[in-house]
Known about the structure:
Structural class: alpha+beta
Strand order of the largest sheet: 2-3-1-4
Mean pLDDT: 78
Shape: rod-shaped
Order of helices and strands: HHEHHHHEEHHHHHHEHHH
Strand content: 5-15%
Number of helices: 15
Largest sheet: 4 strands, antiparallel
Radius of gyration: 56 Å
Low-confidence stretches: 242-255, 316-321
Amino acid sequence: MDELIAQGLATLRAMWRRRWLGLAIAWGAALLAALFLLRMPDRYEATARVYVDTKTLLKPLMRDLTVEPDIDQTLQLLARTLITRPNIEVLMRKGNLERPGMKTAEREALIERLSKEFKITSLGRDNVFTFAYRDVDAVKARQMVEHMVSLFVDSDLGAKQRDVDAARGFIDQQIKAYEVRLAEAENRVKDFKLRNLGVTTASGQDYFSRISALTDELNKLTLDLRAAEQSRDALKRELSGETVSLVPDVPEPAVLATPELDSRLDAQRKQLDELLRRYTDLHPDVVSTRRLIGQLEEQRQREIERKRVAEAARPKAGPSTNVAVQQTKLALAESEASVAALRVRTSDAQSRLAQLRSTASRVPQVEAELAQLNRDYEVVRRNYDALVTQREKAQMSEEVDATRLANFRIIDPPRTADKPVFPNRATVGPALLLLCFGVGAAACFLLVQLMPTVDNAASLRSITKRPVLGSVSMLVSMDDLRAARRGNLAFLAGSAGLFVAFGVWIAIISSMPVRS
């Protein structure tokens, strides 16, 4: 440890002997540092803070009626992508930074520098954005921040309008395509039902349900017919045992009712009303149901004409001799009409059931194909309805966006700080001064290492590894001491002069006007 301390002290004494060289080198470095500070411009930072308010009363009210974009996420993405080459070129034109005749390399370097100088930061989830820009001209820095804030607001509105236009165009295009597909699906269903008119029905029931329904209907009609025949036979037996009275008989009324056809017509009309609430007049089910109603009305008219002709051909009954007989005859006529109607309905049900059973081999396949066509049609119709709904939502969303769901509020307007930002002349100058002294000391140390000197016997013994036989002491006179003191004072004065001169230079260039 003592040896290291001794070596350090010896090195310091050797450096002190070469102090004038170090001071000269420090002055030279100070001159270079002064030129560097002269060419180094102070940079001023302009800042602005903008708050984007997305919490409006209209937003929750229109939640289910419009398409709700994530405004907060959109703003964050916009802030991250605002500093792009097209936007930088816009800022260059607004700030008059692009000179006429500028070379391509210079223009690219300017764009690269501006991309690095502009800073946009976001403060968490509060939607507060800070815009910062540094320039040697304080006024230009503030103007560029103003242009950036304006571009931020305009970019948000422009992006919204472009998104709305793109969404509307896409939805309109899809609606036109689905209109064509919907018409094709309706035509396929209509053509299929026309080809299989005797097999398909408009009720939507499958084959086995129709078989079961017709069987139940036929059993009920058979029971009703048997009951009506028994009632008629009972009236005939009662009429055959009555006595004749002098009261004239009342002619039997004509029975023109068609209850079975009327019930079928009512059922078809109800089904037509239900279909019209769901489909248009051109839907295949609507067309088929109307055709069936027309056929049933024609059949009902023919049945009424037949009964009218049969009633006209019946012989007139002679006078009866009893009021009870007349009433019995009237009940018998009604019973006969009921039996006839039940027979017609039973016969019709039997024929329909027989016809349905005769197509047993075709009906399942036809129904399966019809179900597939209807399923395709429903899918296309649902997609079409969904697209129409989305178009309405998009239109309403555009109207809502016109009310500005996001309000931009400038918290701190663009302004430039009075003092330049780091690194500036006032802060770099002292550091350079210390660096100059360090360069001078480093030069002395390097010179000592390159050309070492010996000032005592121990150092000589350590360097040569030889024994030292003796040493000669040097007697210093008073004149030499006074000369040494004057040299030390001169060195200190030179060092202080360097410190003062550099400090004055820093003060001078720091007070110089800002260069544009």
